[in-house]
Amino acid sequence: MMSKEFMIKQKRPIVGKKAKKAAAWKFTLDLTHPVEDGILDSANFETFLKERIKVNGKTGNLGNIVQVGRMKNKINVTSEKQFSKRYLKYLTKKYLKKNNLRDWLRVVASDKETYELRYFQISQDDEESEADE
Fold it and tell me: Which GO terms describe its cellular component (predicted)?
């Protein structure tokens, strides 16, 4: 008989784990109103995103990991790696500031995967009533 000291538990060999297909992160930027009004160029914004999006801490490193595409007035960003929707909002605000549009447009989440550029709602009635007082 073997004593307990000499008995070694053998670990069961790890049976091959199935590799899961990488989840894709898809986000959409809806630029309909500013593009129709002619104050924003969607092609220019698309190139801005392609130049500025960082992958592994480096700009201009999109490769096959991140795709930026434009369909009429919408820009689609698809990523195989984890990609933050908040980062897309940050870059959009940066573009608006660079082109002096930040005072007129704001970035609003219309649903879980979509941002929309909207105009600020300025109520003229409030301004007029304050001026009268």
Answer: cytoplasm; ribonucleoprotein complex; ribosome
Low-confidence ranges of the chain (pLDDT < 50): 19
Question: How many C-beta atoms lie closer than 10 Å to residue 132's C-beta?
Answer: 5
CA distance 126 to 53: 40
Q: What is the pLDDT of residue 1?
A: 56
**Topology adopted by domain 25-115:** Gyrase A; domain 2 (3.30.1360)
Query: How close are the terminal C-alpha atoms of the chain, in Å?
Result: 101
Ranges of each domain in the chain: 25-115
Amino acid identity, position 45? F
SS3 assignment, position 35: helix
Tokens of 8: 């070694």
pLDDT at 122: 76
